[in-house]
Amino acid sequence: MPSALYACQVMHQRFGEVTYRFKYAVMALKIDIDTFESEAAHHRWLSFNRFNLISVRTEDFGARNGQAWREWVNDLLAQYGLPQPPHRVEIVCTPRILGKAFNPLALWYAYDAENRLIAVIGEVSNTFGQWHHYVLTHPTQPGQPLNRDGKRLHTQADKRFHVSPFLGMDSHYEFRLSAPDDHYHVWIKQFEQQQPRLIATQSGVRQCLTDANLLKAFGRFPLHALKVLGLIHWWALKIWLKGGRFHRTPKHLNDIQHSHSEMTLCSN
After folding, report:
1. What is the pTM assigned to this prediction?
2. Cα separation of 80 and 235, whole Å?
3. SS3 of 69, please?
4. pLDDT at residue 43, as a whole number
5. Contacts of 8 (CB under 8 A, 6+ apart)
6. Structure confidence by residue, pLDDT tens digits, 195-235
7. Burial of 208 (0-12, 13-18, 19+ CB in 10 A)
């Protein structure tokens, strides 16, 4: 499929000494990284690497240093054993609205020439200007399909990146996800010291990438980045006021702007 728009709902539910549950609406783009620049050129309200109502910049994702996405993806997946570059790569992310954006999570999907999913990269960002990539490839034969039956992937990763100051580093994640198509769904559960602490989901329905749909999306989310950042800090304040334990950034992570680590398939 070409690039597309998703109207999504995000849900967060926290467990433990401080509990909460909330939902909010977001807009996401599914971008084919090899064709998006030419696709964006045909839309009035969408741009690549320049300002518009809705835009995306190379520096927003990946290496964030000017390196082309395709070059960066190929290099990173080669480090995780992929024997040759993927045939096609998509990213599902939140775009800039009026030049502003914040992406807590973006997901990259890599496919082979038969359109089979062969790798996933979860790009997690915090509010301190740092980001981390959790990388999934086939556990024994990198480059082979991850899910031949087409079912959702069930994966896991040890926490290697400081995100919320109210969740500790002695944690691991479980993910349930599948390649984006007419529907988009991601489910993440965080365990802290083997106890469930947080469930986060994002689900959406695909819309065609048309000027009319882009303008409607802008009308719904004109201050999207401020909304997301505002919610993050509002709930952090509520957790703190309720006595939630505060975790400082570990010293060994203070000066690391970017890092990456492995995500693996679960056995069931």
Report:
1. 0.91
2. 36
3. helix
4. 95
5. 25, 26, 27, 28, 184, 202, 203, 204
6. 999 999 999 999 999 999 999 999 887 766 666 666 666 66
7. exposed
Residue 118 has pLDDT above 60, yes or no: yes
d(C-alpha 210, C-alpha 152), whole Å? 29
157, 175 Cβ separation under 8 angstroms: yes
- With contact defined as beta carbons under 8 Å apart, do 103 and 125 qualify? yes
Sorting pLDDT into bands at 50, 70 and 90, what band is 19?
confident
β-bridge mates for residue 198, sequence order: 14, 190
Retrieve residue 33's tokens: 């990284």
Contact 92, 60 (CB under 8 A): no
* Higher per-residue pLDDT: 1 or 30: 30
Buried b (16+ CB within 10 A) or exposed e, 126-143: beeebbbbbbbbbeeebb
Q: 68: number of CA atoms within 13 Å, CB side? A: 9
Q: Are 37 and 232 in contact (CB under 8 A)?
A: no
For residue 207, the cross-strand partners are: 5
Between CA 137 and CA 90, with CA 177 as vertex, the angle to 5 degrees is 65
